Amino acid sequence: MASINYALKEISCKVVYYGPGMCGKTTNLQYIHQHTVDDKRGNMVSLATPGERTLFFDFLPLEASQIHGFRTKFQLYTVPGQVMYNSTRKLVLRGVDGVIFVCDSQWEKMRENLESFRNLQENLATYGYSLESTPYVVQYNKRDLENIGPTDYMQYLINPRQVPHFEAIAIRGEGVFETLNCICSLVLGQMSQKQEAGAI
Amino acid sequence: MRKQFTAISAFSTVLAFTAGAVLCMQVSQMEARPGADISVAVLWAIEAAVFGTAVYVWQSQVTVPGWILGIAGLIGVRTALVSVAGLMLAAMQETANVAACLEETSQLLPRICAMVFALMVCYPLRVFLPMRAVEVRRRGRGFADSAAVTSATAGAEEGDRGLLIVTVKDRASAEKKQPRRASAEPIADFMPAPGIEGEVELPLSSVLALFPEDIVTDKALALSDTGSMAIPLEVIHPQLKEAQVCFSVADFRSLLPPAVRKALVQSSDSDLEVENTLVVLPLALIVPQLPPEAFELPSPSPPPWAEVEAGEGIVFATT
Fold it and tell me: Is the ipTM of this complex over 0.90?
């Protein structure tokens, strides 16, 4: 969970990129890593196979601009999308503050998107979290490909609650920072709300 | 594998018919004449009941017309057996009174004998009975319950799965355990949804390309070259929420144009595996044809966190 260190005037939040295999989670992180100023980011840790499949998870620490005098740090994680790495996905979700659910827009990936979204709900539930209490946004990635489904249908499948959603081409950076900024704003907004309620 | 009417089936049919005719003739020459007082109507009723039961036992998925056809076929073979036996008897006795010989072979005992042999003759022919569509049962499967995960986590304690390294061996064994199938598991019943009207047109060639190869004949392929098939939206719509539209081969048969349906290899009782094979239709062919109301979303119900005022508009900016 997010932590606030009043002595150091520091806020730390955890954001997880979730989605089916090969949907572009790592690509999102790589783009963010390449396009943030050096002194605001740490090293990106990534353990991937030669086939560009994330084996464990990716990690990128980022520091945002000061917010109300507090240094705000975000730890960005991705999960391995392949079905067999569910234990790792569960592990990465522990203490999550916000989720970016990355969908692959290709027709043949629709079912995988849906299964992954349900898997996210299942795994959150194991920690007593839910999408009712955890901020999340949806990113429809790979919009530059030809064999993609309409966002109307993807909204119908993945996002009937109509939380913020973004079309993206992560490999070109389109929609990457928009998605990140949105989830970070929501996480900070929720944190602010909790602080006012005395929960933090 | 599909069981078809083979040369061996044809041989056994001919053999059973010949043996049945000879035995009927022999039995008709017995002196004992039990059941001579049983009325003809009762005999016909018993015969129809026995044959009807046999057809149902052979092919429980038989259609009603197929069932009637089966009974009629058995009665026809039984009649043919007693007739041939009567003719053989007349020939052996070198008598011109064929009617009397036919009367002889139509008595109770030769008739029962003919019924038994009619069943033997027709048993290999049961593969030609028309079958009705088989309903697909729903079998839900959780993402985390897939064969790969189950295999990889087998033997691990619930709390001991924090870090899981799945080896290539695990993957291979998971693939082996997963039953081979032409498509994914059933995700929705073949049940129409009320209130959604319209049809989706699909090119027949695209649909038949998804069928198991052993039931698609060259004739069916030739017929499908230019044709299309219509699937009611009401049976597709319930599956759209699952991001997968699939029907079993048996379900598909009822939706195909009659000419193509007849051109496909017909099913038999032993083909349930083939008939239950799921054919997954490409969403790319279906979704673009659907009206916007098919994806109508409920009124927004934002979670509590979405209602809070975001702290900062832009947290990060690109370099």
Answer: no
